[in-house]
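User: I'll paste a sequence; please echo it back and then give the predicted structure.

Assistant: Echoing your sequence first, then the prediction.
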Amino acid sequence: QVQLVESGGGLVQAGGSLRLSCAASGLTFSRYAMGWFRQAPGKEREFVATIRWTRSTYYPDSAKGRFTISRDNAENTVYLQMNSLKPEDTAVYYCAAAYDNGDYYRARSYDYWGQGTQVTVSS
C-alpha cells in the first residue's frame, strides 16, 4: 500500500517560514518524481513545486525564490521549505508522487497523494 504522510503545516504570520515534510512508503521512492500542490477553498488545485528523480526542480512564478523542494531518498522523504510566506499562500498543501513522465505542473500527472496539511498565513 502506497502512503504519503505529510506534516509541518500550521499557522504562521506573513513573512514567516514553514517546512513541510512528506514521508513515503510502499513505493520505490527514488524512481518517482515528487511534487507539492495546494488548494484553497473555491480554487483549483495549484502546482507549487516538483523534484524529479534526477533532482531537477521546477516552480511556478508564485513560488520561485520563496519555496524550495528537496528530497532525501535514503529517508523516503520530500520537503517543502516555504519562506517569506504571504496570506495568499494559505491553502491545503498536498504531497504527490508521479511515476509517469507527464506534465509536472498538472495534478493529473501524479499517481499518489497525501492527505493534505493546512497552511494558514495571517497578516
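The chain has a mean pLDDT of 95. The two ends are 40 Å apart (CA to CA).
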